[in-house]
Amino acid sequence: MVKGMFDNKSIEFLKNMTESFGPSGFERETAGIIKQYMKPFSDEIITDKLGSIVFVAKGEKEKPRVLLAGHIDEVGFVVSGIDENTGFLTFNPVGGWWDQVLLSQKVVVRTAKGDIYGVISSKPPHLLTDEERTKVFTQDRMLIDIGATSRKEAEEAGVKIGDPIVPFSPFSLIRDGKVAMGKAFDDRLGAFVIMESIRRIKQEKISHPNTVYGAATVQEEVGLRGAQTVAHLVNPDVGIVLEVDIAGDVPGVKPHEAPTKMGKGPSLLTYDRTMIPNQPFKEFVWKTAQDTGIPLQLSQVARGGTDAGRIHLDRSGCPSIVISVPTRHIHSHVGLFSLEDAENAVKLVIEIIKRLDMETVENFTKI
User: Fold this and answer.
1) Do 253 and 304 have their domain in common?
2) Which residue from 70, 350, 5 is spatially nearest to 205, judged by alpha carbons?
3) Residues paired with residue 350 on neighbouring β-strands, in sequence order
4) 144-154 tens-digit pLDDT
5) For position 149, which CATH number holds?
6) Identified catalytic residue from 19, 196, 220, 340
7) What proportion of the chain, given as a percentage, has pLDDT over 70?
8) Alpha helical stretches, state H, the chain
């Protein structure tokens, strides 16, 4: 653990949450871990009927209702078929994957009889023709090998069509504890920032002129579905989505494609495909960061979207912004992020919450 950052209990919670099994539509295990951890720090726990869970932290005033949202589903797969002769599994993606990050990666298949490990199979290089070596091998041609030799064996092990699959990728800290490595940071890292913010508000008795609703939403990766039902449940006056940003400090990525860098602070979204943030709220967040000395980068994602895409359209509209932690290699088996960036995201969220009284929130939408 890096001095001045998260304590060992928080890191253990982050580890358990990110290693848990929870692709879109199958988030119950992850939600249960979060619920157990957040019980001591919540005045109330409420749920929608889709699987999202919301932790309420009451402040000095009932309103404004401040919704903090981070999705807990991860990109994964589902079994689409079982080969009769070999027992290899065909599969469909759940969420966005790039085919070239899949081959030879280890996965976990969850069946009614328990979890089964497998590997996304590839042809040994010794057997590839010169023509095959130059072609992209697409996901629809890939198979998962679970060690079976027939369909019968696979079914006897418990596999059936519709079973969910996630990457196998244990959580670890590298670079003397400064950088985390693992799966599902998109977006359990955002959920972690929310839970850590609420925990500190409660434990440190930080006063805030509002009621905070910390939501762990579901099914974001397949269409921002949990955000819609949570917004209806909470009826927020203002929305803050906590996400991962695409860290652009990776060879081959141009600055205008992904302007933020890992280790330089959290980011504030200025534009994405699903939402243009409320401009006074955006400037309020930027000024809060400047006033408190918290590093903050400006970001844009031309082809992506977040839960804010649904939250800002709730009822007659909800002024919303997105704060993110720059993360390398999202939507793959292994991502990386800086713990210092996550720590600064928590600090910024708390500073924002301390300043969101009703008059301030109403000014976001005054014309």
Assistant:
1) yes
2) 350
3) none
4) 999 999 999 99
5) 2.40.30.40
6) 220
7) 99
8) 8-19, 28-38, 130-133, 151-156, 185-203, 225-234, 279-292, 308-311, 339-355, 358-363
